[in-house]
Amino acid sequence: EILIAAVTITVHLLIAVTHGGPVALPDVSAYLSYGQYLHGGYLIDPTPYFPGYGLAHALFGNLPGSQLHTVALVGNALAAGLIVWLAASFSRRHGASPAVVIFCSFLAAIHPAASSSSRIGWPETWLILLLLLICELLSHRSIRSMCAAGLATGIAVSLHPRAVVLVVGILVAAVSIRQLRSVLYGLVPAVTLVIAALTLTSSWPTSRIAAANSNIADSNMFATSSGQLLALSAGTCGFALLGLIHSSTSSIKAFARKRAQSDVSASPELTFLSVSAVSMIILGGIVLSGSIREDTLLYGRYIDPWSLPLAFIGVIAISTKKLKSSSSLT
Question: How far apart are CA 304 and CA 228, in angstroms?
Answer without folding.
Answer: 9
